[in-house]
């Protein structure tokens, strides 16, 4: 692997991650505002973002804490929201599993929606890349995303309630997830999981403590797995003929 190739792959990753800046800035700023409104200090808010680095889980935990939900429910809900990270890790293992332990640990920390979405597509398109090249691309995607997540969490925490309500920073949340999810709905299993999650979340919205979201996620994973299983069975039957 030449230096030129490494640099080229690095800048590919930076360019692919850069568009997410448009939503990462308001998203992280909004979290800073919400966290301080919930009673966290600026330092606690920054620590939360650095340690967890998972926007959806952070918003879920803070919102539940604001509503005086039992701590056990808060932890279970945040973990449930982040269950997708386990699936991300399993999906990335064939590509990054050969890396050194410290590299895999670092990759695990920076496995967020954006780094996964960009990397899994690029890895599938570039099967000849070495583990080192894949790691270069993966970490490069994080370069324009993660530092800004930390920085603007602090900005949001500092300015707090001074932000006018009319600014409507919360638009960043749905836009971020639409930008990530839409390109990845490539199979029937993906579409089935997405549809089941949406319908179940709406139907079960009456449940307390946002438990409807937890149930919707579980049902979506079950639906996707079942569609995938049936697709594999049909493929096997066709191969036998």
TrEMBL record:
It is found in: Cell membrane. The keyword Transmembrane helix applies. Belongs to the AzlC family. Its main location: membrane. Pfam families: AzlC (PF03591). Keywords: Cell membrane, Membrane, Transmembrane, Transmembrane helix, Transport. It is a multi-pass membrane protein. GO terms for biological process: L-valine transmembrane transport. The keyword Phosphoprotein does not apply. The chain crosses the membrane at residues 20-40, 46-65, 72-91, 137-160, 167-185, 191-224. InterPro entries: Brnchd-chn_aa_trnsp_permease. One of its GO terms (cellular component) is plasma membrane. This is Predicted branched-chain amino acid permease (Azaleucine resistance).
């Amino acid at each position: 692997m030449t230096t030129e190739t490494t640099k080229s792959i690095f800048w590919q990753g930076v360019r692919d991650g850069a568009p997410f800046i448009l939503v990462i800035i308001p998203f992280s700023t909004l979290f800073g505002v919400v966290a301080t409104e919930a009673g966290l200090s600026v330092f606690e808010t920054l620590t939360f973002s650095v340690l967890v680095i998972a926007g959806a889980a952070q918003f879920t935990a803070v919102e539940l804490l604001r509503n005086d939900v039992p701590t056990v429910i808060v932890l279970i809900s945040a973990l449930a929201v982040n269950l997708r990270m386990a699936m991300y890790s399993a999906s990335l293992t064939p590509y990054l599993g050969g890396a050194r332990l410290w590299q895999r640990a670092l990759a695990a920390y920076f496995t967020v929606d954006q780094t996964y979405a960009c990397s899994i597509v690029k890895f599938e398109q570039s099967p000849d890349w070495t583990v080192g090249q894949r790691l270069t691309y993966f970490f490069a995607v994080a370069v324009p995303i993660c530092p800004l997540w930390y920085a603007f969490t602090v900005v949001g925490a500092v300015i707090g309630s001074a932000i006018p309500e009319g600014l409507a920073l919360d638009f960043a949340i749905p836009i971020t997830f639409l930008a990530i999810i839409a390109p990845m709905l490539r199979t029937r299993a993906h579409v089935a999981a997405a549809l089941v999650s949406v319908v179940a979340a709406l139907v079960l919205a009456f449940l307390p403590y946002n438990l409807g979201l937890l149930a919707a996620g579980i049902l979506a994973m079950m639906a996707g797995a079942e569609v995938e299983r049936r697709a594999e069975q049909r493929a096997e039957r066709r191969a036998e003929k």
